[in-house]
Amino acid sequence: MSIPFAWVDAFTAEPFAGNPAAVCMLDAERDEQWMFDMAREFGLSETAFVLPRDGGFSLRWFTPVVESDLCGHATLASAHVLWEAGVLDHDAAARFFTRSGELVCARASGWIEMDFPVDEIQKSEPIAGADTLGVDVVFTGISSRDHYIEVENERVLRELDPRMSWVAGLPLRGLVVTSRAAEGADYALRMFAPQAGIDEDPVTGSVQTALGPFWAERLGRPELVARQASTRGGTLRVRPEGVRVKIAGQAVTIARGTL
Predict the structure, then answer these.
(1) Domains and CATH numbers, the chain
(2) Is 152 a catalytic residue?
(3) Is the pLDDT score of 81 beyond 80?
(4) Were 64 and a residue from 5, 87, 149, 197 both cysteine, which residue would form a disulfide, CB within 3.0 to 4.6 Å?
């Protein structure tokens, strides 16, 4: 069986930036172990598997070690591939059925906008061991998926060097550290998830479902620009709408091939 795949940099308009994802276009169900094996073979933070079904596409995401409940950049990459390959007309929505319910992507002025459910941040007690970060913590919170820490500014955020053994011991998926952005964006963030085999995620769409509403309330803005302050870096547009969050980004195909 020949399976086409694409290697896509998501949340960037330039190659070799943003967050890379592999997108495999299936024509039949595949064994879960095979999908894990493929994710390990690609070695990226996420590999997406897209399978046509009535009304849209089944979509599953795998890191090299776990199946993800929600992934933003690999969803963006999957929609990008469907339009670029001509599987979908450019003005048609990409509708995905996932472990997090139905997710819809649409094209808008050269960007791809995703419609995701909100994941609210609740204020929490300080995280045990957070003092090892060696910075002043402005806020500590928790969502259904991740721990959140706010620090003073983007300079502090960029200089952080968390001990991965400590982050890996946290009970949720990962640790998100955020701050006001220095310039050119509204807020900045970094995301660490060694539990999922990703020490630092280059650009994370899923955490904007929590950070978007968090910063929209703090800044009093209905639409925001987020900057992920990782080595590769990436830019996202975020617009909370009630119990949903619209997350937009761009994407670039780096390679295509056949398994």
Answers:
(1) 4-116+247-258 (3.10.310.10), 122-241 (3.10.310.10)
(2) no
(3) yes
(4) 197
